[in-house]
Amino acid sequence: MNTRRPRFPADLTASPNGNGRGPGATAKTSLKPSGPVSPVSGHSMPSSASAVSATAPRGLGLDSLAVRERMVSRLVEQGLSSKRVAEAMRQVERHRFVDSALVNQAYEDTSLPIGLGQTISKPNVVGRMLDLLVQAPVFTQSAHPSGRLAGRVLEVGTGCGYQAAVLSHLFAEVYSMERLKGLHEKARDNLRAFRLANVHLLLGDGMLGFPRGAPYAAIISAAGGDDVPSNWTDQLVVGGRLVAPCTQKNGQQALVVVDKTESGLTHSVLEAVHFVPLKSGLA
Ligand code: SAH
Protein backbone atom coordinates (compact mmCIF):
# COMPACT_ATOMS: atom_id res chain seq x y z
CA MET A 1 0.00 0.00 0.00
CA ASN A 2 1.13 3.54 -0.68
CA THR A 3 2.28 5.02 2.60
CA ARG A 4 3.16 8.51 1.37
CA ARG A 5 0.09 10.67 1.18
CA PRO A 6 -0.11 14.33 0.25
CA ARG A 7 -1.76 16.78 2.56
CA PHE A 8 -5.24 17.62 1.35
CA PRO A 9 -6.87 19.42 -0.22
CA ALA A 10 -4.21 19.53 -2.88
CA ASP A 11 -3.99 20.68 -6.47
CA LEU A 12 -2.71 18.34 -9.12
CA THR A 13 -1.49 21.10 -11.37
CA ALA A 14 -0.90 20.62 -15.07
CA SER A 15 2.50 19.72 -16.43
CA PRO A 16 4.72 22.64 -17.50
CA ASN A 17 3.66 22.18 -21.12
CA GLY A 18 0.18 22.86 -19.86
CA ASN A 19 -1.79 20.15 -21.59
CA GLY A 20 -1.51 17.41 -19.01
CA ARG A 21 -2.23 14.84 -21.74
CA GLY A 22 -0.48 11.80 -23.04
CA PRO A 23 1.67 9.17 -21.40
CA GLY A 24 4.16 11.74 -20.06
CA ALA A 25 1.53 13.61 -18.08
CA THR A 26 1.83 11.58 -14.88
CA ALA A 27 5.58 12.02 -14.63
CA LYS A 28 5.40 15.77 -15.18
CA THR A 29 2.46 16.35 -12.89
CA SER A 30 3.39 18.17 -9.72
CA LEU A 31 1.49 18.00 -6.48
CA LYS A 32 1.15 21.33 -4.82
CA PRO A 33 -0.89 22.08 -1.68
CA SER A 34 -3.49 24.75 -2.34
CA GLY A 35 -3.99 25.64 1.31
CA PRO A 36 -6.53 24.26 3.74
CA VAL A 37 -10.26 24.65 3.31
CA SER A 38 -11.01 26.77 6.29
CA PRO A 39 -14.39 26.28 7.89
CA VAL A 40 -16.64 29.31 7.73
CA SER A 41 -16.87 30.78 11.19
CA GLY A 42 -19.99 31.40 13.22
CA HIS A 43 -23.31 31.19 11.46
CA SER A 44 -22.25 32.83 8.25
CA MET A 45 -22.66 30.93 5.01
CA PRO A 46 -20.78 31.04 1.72
CA SER A 47 -22.00 33.67 -0.69
CA SER A 48 -23.97 31.20 -2.80
CA ALA A 49 -25.75 29.95 0.30
CA SER A 50 -26.58 33.51 1.41
CA ALA A 51 -28.04 34.10 -2.02
CA VAL A 52 -30.08 30.95 -1.59
CA SER A 53 -31.60 32.02 1.69
CA ALA A 54 -32.39 35.41 0.20
CA THR A 55 -34.26 33.94 -2.75
CA ALA A 56 -35.85 30.85 -1.19
CA PRO A 57 -39.57 31.53 -0.88
CA ARG A 58 -40.62 32.05 2.72
CA GLY A 59 -42.54 29.17 4.16
CA LEU A 60 -41.41 26.76 1.48
CA GLY A 61 -38.42 25.99 3.68
CA LEU A 62 -35.84 24.55 1.33
CA ASP A 63 -33.70 24.17 4.44
CA SER A 64 -36.23 21.82 5.93
CA LEU A 65 -35.59 18.12 6.21
CA ALA A 66 -39.14 17.49 4.96
CA VAL A 67 -38.22 18.77 1.49
CA ARG A 68 -35.33 16.35 1.24
CA GLU A 69 -37.42 13.55 2.72
CA ARG A 70 -39.98 14.04 -0.02
CA MET A 71 -37.27 13.84 -2.67
CA VAL A 72 -35.80 10.68 -1.14
CA SER A 73 -39.23 9.00 -0.72
CA ARG A 74 -39.77 9.48 -4.45
CA LEU A 75 -36.37 7.92 -5.16
CA VAL A 76 -37.23 4.94 -2.93
CA GLU A 77 -40.55 4.53 -4.80
CA GLN A 78 -38.57 4.53 -8.03
CA GLY A 79 -36.26 1.77 -6.81
CA LEU A 80 -33.54 3.23 -4.57
CA SER A 81 -32.80 0.27 -2.30
CA SER A 82 -29.92 1.19 0.00
CA LYS A 83 -30.97 2.71 3.32
CA ARG A 84 -27.47 4.16 3.65
CA VAL A 85 -27.75 5.99 0.35
CA ALA A 86 -31.25 7.20 1.18
CA GLU A 87 -30.01 8.55 4.52
CA ALA A 88 -26.98 10.25 2.93
CA MET A 89 -29.18 11.94 0.32
CA ARG A 90 -31.60 12.99 3.05
CA GLN A 91 -28.76 14.78 4.80
CA VAL A 92 -27.34 16.89 1.98
CA GLU A 93 -29.07 20.14 1.08
CA ARG A 94 -29.01 20.06 -2.71
CA HIS A 95 -30.23 23.64 -3.05
CA ARG A 96 -26.95 24.90 -1.58
CA PHE A 97 -25.13 23.61 -4.67
CA VAL A 98 -27.16 25.26 -7.43
CA ASP A 99 -27.39 28.86 -8.56
CA SER A 100 -29.87 31.03 -6.74
CA ALA A 101 -32.09 31.30 -9.83
CA LEU A 102 -32.53 27.51 -9.81
CA VAL A 103 -33.07 26.78 -6.11
CA ASN A 104 -36.77 26.13 -6.62
CA GLN A 105 -35.89 23.19 -8.87
CA ALA A 106 -33.24 21.79 -6.53
CA TYR A 107 -35.45 18.98 -5.20
CA GLU A 108 -37.04 18.06 -8.49
CA ASP A 109 -35.72 15.05 -10.33
CA THR A 110 -33.85 17.06 -12.88
CA SER A 111 -30.28 17.79 -13.86
CA LEU A 112 -29.34 21.46 -13.58
CA PRO A 113 -26.60 23.64 -15.07
CA ILE A 114 -23.69 24.40 -12.74
CA GLY A 115 -21.65 26.62 -15.07
CA LEU A 116 -18.89 26.04 -17.65
CA GLY A 117 -21.27 23.88 -19.69
CA GLN A 118 -21.53 21.20 -16.97
CA THR A 119 -24.51 19.85 -15.05
CA ILE A 120 -25.35 18.41 -11.66
CA SER A 121 -26.86 14.95 -12.25
CA LYS A 122 -30.49 14.38 -11.40
CA PRO A 123 -31.09 12.88 -7.95
CA ASN A 124 -32.45 9.66 -9.45
CA VAL A 125 -29.19 9.02 -11.29
CA VAL A 126 -27.06 9.96 -8.28
CA GLY A 127 -29.11 7.55 -6.13
CA ARG A 128 -28.92 4.78 -8.72
CA MET A 129 -25.13 5.01 -9.08
CA LEU A 130 -24.55 5.14 -5.33
CA ASP A 131 -26.94 2.23 -4.84
CA LEU A 132 -24.75 0.18 -7.18
CA LEU A 133 -21.52 1.42 -5.61
CA VAL A 134 -22.36 0.49 -2.01
CA GLN A 135 -23.09 -3.08 -3.12
CA ALA A 136 -19.39 -3.68 -3.87
CA PRO A 137 -18.38 -7.00 -2.27
CA VAL A 138 -15.57 -5.30 -0.33
CA PHE A 139 -18.10 -3.44 1.83
CA THR A 140 -19.56 -6.60 3.30
CA GLN A 141 -16.24 -7.30 5.03
CA SER A 142 -15.63 -4.50 7.51
CA ALA A 143 -17.18 -1.42 9.00
CA HIS A 144 -15.51 1.89 9.78
CA PRO A 145 -15.68 3.25 13.35
CA SER A 146 -17.57 6.29 12.02
CA GLY A 147 -20.39 4.03 10.83
CA ARG A 148 -19.46 4.82 7.23
CA LEU A 149 -18.31 2.21 4.76
CA ALA A 150 -14.63 1.43 5.31
CA GLY A 151 -12.30 2.42 2.51
CA ARG A 152 -11.67 5.24 0.10
CA VAL A 153 -13.80 6.35 -2.83
CA LEU A 154 -12.57 8.27 -5.87
CA GLU A 155 -15.06 10.54 -7.62
CA VAL A 156 -14.16 11.76 -11.10
CA GLY A 157 -15.97 15.03 -11.83
CA THR A 158 -16.50 17.06 -8.65
CA GLY A 159 -18.66 19.58 -10.49
CA CYS A 160 -20.46 21.68 -7.87
CA GLY A 161 -19.56 19.25 -5.08
CA TYR A 162 -23.05 17.89 -4.38
CA GLN A 163 -22.28 14.23 -4.96
CA ALA A 164 -18.99 14.59 -3.06
CA ALA A 165 -21.03 15.74 -0.06
CA VAL A 166 -23.33 12.73 -0.37
CA LEU A 167 -20.30 10.44 -0.69
CA SER A 168 -18.84 11.92 2.50
CA HIS A 169 -21.77 10.50 4.47
CA LEU A 170 -21.26 7.06 2.96
CA PHE A 171 -17.52 6.43 2.81
CA ALA A 172 -14.65 6.87 5.25
CA GLU A 173 -12.57 8.96 2.82
CA VAL A 174 -13.61 10.77 -0.35
CA TYR A 175 -11.18 11.92 -3.07
CA SER A 176 -12.91 14.01 -5.68
CA MET A 177 -11.20 15.25 -8.85
CA GLU A 178 -12.25 18.01 -11.21
CA ARG A 179 -10.42 19.16 -14.37
CA LEU A 180 -12.04 22.61 -14.57
CA LYS A 181 -10.46 25.07 -12.16
CA GLY A 182 -13.63 27.18 -12.00
CA LEU A 183 -15.71 24.24 -10.81
CA HIS A 184 -13.03 22.92 -8.45
CA GLU A 185 -13.13 26.33 -6.76
CA LYS A 186 -16.91 26.49 -6.81
CA ALA A 187 -17.11 23.09 -5.12
CA ARG A 188 -14.61 24.24 -2.48
CA ASP A 189 -16.79 27.29 -1.77
CA ASN A 190 -19.97 25.23 -1.71
CA LEU A 191 -18.55 22.61 0.63
CA ARG A 192 -16.80 24.96 3.05
CA ALA A 193 -19.81 25.45 5.33
CA PHE A 194 -20.45 21.72 5.59
CA ARG A 195 -17.04 21.14 7.25
CA LEU A 196 -16.62 17.69 5.74
CA ALA A 197 -13.24 16.61 7.06
CA ASN A 198 -13.20 13.40 5.03
CA VAL A 199 -13.56 15.07 1.60
CA HIS A 200 -10.39 15.86 -0.36
CA LEU A 201 -10.89 18.04 -3.42
CA LEU A 202 -8.30 17.69 -6.16
CA LEU A 203 -7.75 19.74 -9.30
CA GLY A 204 -6.53 17.25 -11.87
CA ASP A 205 -7.27 14.98 -14.77
CA GLY A 206 -9.40 12.21 -13.36
CA MET A 207 -8.67 9.99 -16.35
CA LEU A 208 -5.35 9.33 -14.67
CA GLY A 209 -7.09 8.45 -11.43
CA PHE A 210 -5.22 9.54 -8.34
CA PRO A 211 -2.54 6.92 -7.62
CA ARG A 212 -1.37 8.55 -4.40
CA GLY A 213 -4.76 7.96 -2.79
CA ALA A 214 -5.09 4.42 -4.19
CA PRO A 215 -6.24 1.75 -3.76
CA TYR A 216 -9.92 2.64 -3.76
CA ALA A 217 -12.78 0.46 -2.63
CA ALA A 218 -15.03 2.36 -5.03
CA ILE A 219 -14.69 4.67 -8.03
CA ILE A 220 -17.53 6.72 -9.48
CA SER A 221 -17.43 8.90 -12.56
CA ALA A 222 -19.84 11.71 -13.32
CA ALA A 223 -18.52 12.05 -16.87
CA GLY A 224 -18.59 9.49 -19.67
CA GLY A 225 -15.87 8.38 -22.08
CA ASP A 226 -15.58 5.67 -24.74
CA ASP A 227 -13.88 3.26 -22.36
CA VAL A 228 -13.22 2.87 -18.68
CA PRO A 229 -9.61 4.08 -18.27
CA SER A 230 -7.30 1.28 -17.13
CA ASN A 231 -5.90 3.70 -14.52
CA TRP A 232 -9.21 3.37 -12.69
CA THR A 233 -9.34 -0.41 -12.62
CA ASP A 234 -5.62 -0.51 -11.69
CA GLN A 235 -6.44 1.69 -8.69
CA LEU A 236 -9.35 -0.44 -7.42
CA VAL A 237 -8.96 -2.98 -4.61
CA VAL A 238 -9.95 -6.59 -5.25
CA GLY A 239 -13.60 -6.70 -4.20
CA GLY A 240 -13.99 -3.07 -5.21
CA ARG A 241 -16.43 -1.63 -7.73
CA LEU A 242 -16.44 1.11 -10.34
CA VAL A 243 -19.59 2.76 -11.68
CA ALA A 244 -19.33 5.03 -14.72
CA PRO A 245 -21.19 6.12 -17.84
CA CYS A 246 -19.56 4.74 -20.96
CA THR A 247 -20.35 5.12 -24.67
CA GLN A 248 -21.30 1.80 -26.24
CA LYS A 249 -20.70 0.56 -29.79
CA ASN A 250 -24.12 1.86 -30.85
CA GLY A 251 -22.99 5.36 -29.85
CA GLN A 252 -25.32 5.49 -26.81
CA GLN A 253 -24.07 6.07 -23.31
CA ALA A 254 -24.90 3.42 -20.72
CA LEU A 255 -24.11 2.93 -17.08
CA VAL A 256 -21.29 0.42 -16.66
CA VAL A 257 -20.36 -1.46 -13.50
CA VAL A 258 -16.90 -3.00 -13.26
CA ASP A 259 -16.08 -5.37 -10.40
CA LYS A 260 -12.49 -6.30 -9.63
CA THR A 261 -12.27 -9.92 -8.52
CA GLU A 262 -9.39 -12.28 -7.72
CA SER A 263 -9.68 -13.63 -11.24
CA GLY A 264 -10.00 -10.33 -13.13
CA LEU A 265 -12.57 -7.71 -14.10
CA THR A 266 -16.26 -8.28 -14.75
CA HIS A 267 -18.22 -5.70 -16.76
CA SER A 268 -21.98 -5.20 -16.62
CA VAL A 269 -23.71 -2.79 -18.98
CA LEU A 270 -26.92 -1.35 -17.53
CA GLU A 271 -29.43 1.29 -18.61
CA ALA A 272 -28.91 4.21 -20.99
CA VAL A 273 -27.78 7.50 -19.40
CA HIS A 274 -26.75 11.00 -20.50
CA PHE A 275 -23.64 12.41 -18.89
CA VAL A 276 -21.26 15.17 -19.92
CA PRO A 277 -18.12 13.92 -21.72
CA LEU A 278 -15.03 12.74 -19.90
CA LYS A 279 -12.19 14.91 -21.19
CA SER A 280 -8.46 14.77 -20.59
CA GLY A 281 -6.22 17.57 -19.36
CA LEU A 282 -6.99 20.60 -17.24
CA ALA A 283 -8.84 23.78 -18.19
N1 SAH B 1 -20.72 15.06 -9.42
C1 SAH B 1 -20.97 16.36 -9.95
C2 SAH B 1 -21.42 16.30 -11.38
C3 SAH B 1 -20.49 17.06 -12.25
S1 SAH B 1 -20.72 16.92 -13.98
C4 SAH B 1 -21.91 17.16 -9.07
O1 SAH B 1 -22.45 16.62 -8.08
O2 SAH B 1 -22.07 18.33 -9.35
C5 SAH B 1 -19.25 16.09 -14.44
C6 SAH B 1 -17.96 16.80 -14.19
O3 SAH B 1 -16.91 15.97 -14.68
C7 SAH B 1 -17.80 18.14 -14.89
O4 SAH B 1 -17.61 19.12 -13.92
C8 SAH B 1 -16.56 17.95 -15.75
O5 SAH B 1 -15.74 19.10 -15.82
C9 SAH B 1 -15.85 16.82 -15.03
N2 SAH B 1 -14.85 16.09 -15.81
C10 SAH B 1 -14.90 15.68 -17.11
N3 SAH B 1 -13.77 15.03 -17.43
C11 SAH B 1 -12.99 15.00 -16.31
C12 SAH B 1 -11.70 14.50 -16.00
N4 SAH B 1 -10.95 13.87 -16.91
N5 SAH B 1 -11.22 14.67 -14.74
C13 SAH B 1 -11.95 15.31 -13.80
N6 SAH B 1 -13.16 15.83 -14.03
C14 SAH B 1 -13.69 15.68 -15.27
Describe the structure in brief:
This protein is an alpha/beta fold and 283 residues long. 25% of the residues lie in helices and 27% in strands. It contains eight helices and 13 strands.
Give the topology:
Blueprint: E1 10-13, H1 25-28, E2 30-33, H2 47-55, H3 65-77, H4 83-91, E3 112-115, E4 118-120, H5 123-133, E5 149-156, H6 162-170, E6 171-178, H7 181-192, E7 199-203, E8 216-221, E9 223-224, H8 230-234, E10 236-247, E11 253-261, E12 264-272, E13 276-277
Parallel strand pairs: 1-7, 5-6, 5-8, 6-7, 8-10, 9-13
Antiparallel strand pairs: 1-2, 3-4, 10-11, 11-12
Bound molecules: S-adenosyl-L-homocysteine.
S-adenosyl-L-homocysteine binds next to β4, α6 and β6.
Descriptive overview:
The radius of gyration is 18 Å and the shape is globular. The protein has eight helices and 13 strands. Residues 1-59 have low confidence and may be disordered. It is α/β, with parallel strands linked by helices and 283 residues long. It has a domain at 49-61 and 125-277: Rossmann fold. Helix 3 runs antiparallel to helix 4 and helix 4 crosses helix 6. The strands form three sheets. It has a nine-stranded mixed sheet with strand order 2-1-7-6-5-8-10-11-12. A two-stranded antiparallel ribbon has the order 3-4. The protein has helices at residues 25-28, 47-55, 65-77, 83-91, 123-133, 162-170, 181-192, 230-234, and strands spanning 10-13, 30-33, 112-115, 118-120, 149-156, 171-178, 199-203, 216-221, 223-224, 236-247, 253-261, 264-272, 276-277. A hairpin with a 5-residue loop joins strand 10 and strand 11 (253-261). The structure holds S-adenosyl-L-homocysteine (SAH). Residues 114, 118-121, 156-157, 159-160, 162-163, 177-180, 183, 205-207, 222-223, 276, 278-280 line the site of S-adenosyl-L-homocysteine.
